[in-house]
């Protein structure tokens, strides 16, 4: 076989391999939020509705890594980094849930999604509620992941101060202590250490602002009041770490259902994807049946 032919064949083979690889075609994108802060997002798969995954406090899009292959088979899925997180820009003096909701709206508009289901982990719960309020007619439903335990949970400024003060004194140590309570002994040690170290490395100013803003909604009652405007089906896929007040949620929401995964921790989408993914898929299907 002639060297020239071998070289040409090798080039063609490499081109075919990389051009045919879905991973090679996927690059993060950027779009400005309502206030101009650049928001990083990734798109995978095809098919409507679009599933938009929103991470929690001091996390980013990587926390959904175990969902990409499963859900991109039948739907277009979008992962984003909220402002001040991951690869998105900073520059805000306050990291409110409403501003985060604008980040989600900006990404939904950038990808041209007309029908979306919003999926939010932890702090992502109140964020997707805000995003739904900003996108009337576009959102089919909300799915909380270890969130929406009780949207009317009573909280006092004193309790919030007690939560925040260790983080203000020493953010890294306080963050590790705070996040450790969200895990269980069965959490794999490498995953535990990665999460603890990763979240402790968050920008303290962003993390403290976001935590105060999120928990402040429970003090004012806005965490429940928002559902007077957001009249959509709400589902939850939660761990069994904390109880769910179904009665309270249903007093405020148009509808509420939850699937509880036993023996899971707060990061169940990473630690238990083999159980979590089918449960989330079922929640998506239930919302689709109600559209």
Count of helical stretches? 13
CA-based shape: globular
Structural class: alpha/beta
How much helicity do the residues have? 40-55%
Order of helices and strands: HHEEEHEHEHEHHHHHEHEHH
| Mean pLDDT metric | 92
User: What's the CATH class label of the domain at 27-153 and 221-290?
Assistant: Alpha Beta
Q: Hey, roughly how much beta strand do the residues contain?
A: 15-25%
Low-confidence stretches: 5-25
Q: What is the CATH architecture assignment of the domain at 27-153 and 221-290?
A: 3-Layer(aba) Sandwich
What does this protein structure show overall?
47% of the residues lie in helices and 16% in strands. By secondary structure, it is an alpha/beta fold. The chain has a domain at 27-153 and 221-290: Rossmann fold, CATH 3.40.50.1820. It has an eight-stranded mixed β-sheet with strand order 1-2-4-3-5-6-7-8, with helices on both faces. A hairpin with a 5-residue loop joins strand 1 and strand 2 (38-44). Helix 4 (97-110) crosses helix 5 (124-134) and helix 6 (157-169) packs antiparallel against helix 9. The longest helix has 18 residues, at 3-20. It is globular and about 45 Å long.
């Amino acid at each position: 076989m002639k060297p020239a032919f071998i070289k040409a064949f090798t080039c063609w083979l490499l081109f075919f391999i990389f051009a045919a690889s879905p991973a090679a075609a996927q690059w993060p994108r950027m779009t400005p939020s309502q206030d101009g802060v650049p928001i990083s997002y990734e798109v995978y798969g095809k098919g409507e509705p679009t599933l938009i995954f929103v991470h929690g406090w001091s996390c980013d899009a990587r926390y959904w890594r175990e969902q990409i292959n499963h859900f991109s088979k039948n739907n277009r899925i979008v992962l984003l980094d909220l402002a001040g997180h991951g690869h998105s820009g900073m520059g805000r003096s306050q990291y409110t849930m409403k501003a985060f909701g604008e980040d989600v709206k900006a990404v939904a508009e950038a990808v041209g999604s007309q029908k979306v289901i919003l999926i939010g982990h932890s702090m992502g719960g109140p964020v997707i509620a805000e995003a739904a309020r900003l996108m009337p007619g576009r959102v089919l439903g909300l799915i909380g992941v270890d969130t929406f335990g009780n949207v009317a949970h009573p909280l006092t400024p004193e309790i919030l101060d007690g939560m925040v003060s260790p983080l203000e004194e020493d953010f890294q140590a306080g963050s590790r202590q705070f996040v450790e309570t969200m895990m269980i002994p069965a959490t794999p040690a490498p995953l535990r250490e990665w999460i603890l170290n990763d979240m402790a490395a968050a920008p303290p100013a962003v993390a403290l602002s976001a935590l105060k803003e999120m928990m402040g909604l429970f003090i004012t009652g806005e965490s429940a009041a928002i559902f007077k405007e957001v009249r959509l089906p709400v589902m939850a896929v939660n761990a069994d770490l904390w109880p769910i007040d179904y009665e309270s949620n249903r007093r405020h929401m148009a509808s509420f259902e939850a699937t509880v995964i036993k023996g899971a921790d707060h990061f169940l989408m990473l630690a238990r994807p083999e159980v979590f993914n089918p449960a989330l898929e079922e929640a998506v299907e239930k919302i689709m049946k109600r559209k």
